[in-house]
């Protein structure tokens, strides 16, 4: 297979962040631990928008093909690959490589590897640029490829591979389950998954939203309680009630101090942040004393490991978890990313393949 047979919708002019053109690209050098797949679906993530628009302030490698919520069909495997074979349905998420040698990689924490490789806007060790899923195909080390259960449609599994995993991992690792009260702050692409997975894990779910129009949606997703954060004292009735809060906000409000949320935690409760806004939107200030009154823990979380991802997909298949998605052909990626930036999506876009594949 020649390099010119890989093509995707790429950014070529950073001044026109959403103007994506079909470009040919050189794929990852195929190695014996690699899996190659023909892409059928790719979710549209807020990370795609931040990267295309240079919102996080990082250098953009051009041309740039984003997309890291990928599902497709295996077309080729290396000689060291035993888990997958041609014809299998698989997925690839937001991470596509790591050193595989450090302590973190050896203990199922490869998502925290110092030398991790992002699925796009990154470079492989041999200098080849990593390109994402708004494309016809992708190659990945088998560690970063996930089997899609038969009970899950590819279009539903796609956005689980970043958005879903980003909230599932901290829910799982922090004990969300029967008998636990879990708060999900922000009901968007991430937050709606927070409700779905917290409920699937058996927790009592509290959804927090500043959008009254989303209250009924949150209930339909499975939230046991929905709190409108428009009221200044919304948190008062829940003082010390929650075991875990996961915040998914992409725009932190300076008039909502973090202690507004930590005050709702029980003693030794945990607040985990997974929302990552543009670089100029900082976390609201919080005095150190605010963490002392209930011994609260405040942390972040990054993606999830392969173990986490497989557990998530298994749970989704067993519990019938289905994201709320809007489907568009991949040729309409411009519309999708622009609407995500405006917040006009309920609750996740998924692009389906319509580039004429030549692979």
TrEMBL record:
A Pfam family per the record: ADH_zinc_N
Gene3D superfamilies per the UniProt record, alphabetical: Medium-chain alcohol dehydrogenases, catalytic domain (3.90.180.10), NAD(P)-binding Rossmann-like Domain (3.40.50.720)
InterPro entries registered for this protein in UniProt: ADH-like_C, ADH-like_N, ADH_Zn_CS, CAD-like, D-isomer_DH_CS1, ER, GroES-like_sf, NAD(P)-bd_dom_sf
Domain Enoyl reductase (ER): 10-351
Cofactor: Zn(2+)
Keyword check for Oxidoreductase: yes
PANTHER family: ALDEHYDE REDUCTASE
The protein's name: NADP-dependent alcohol dehydrogenase 6
Naturally occurring in which organism (per UniProt): Sparassis crispa
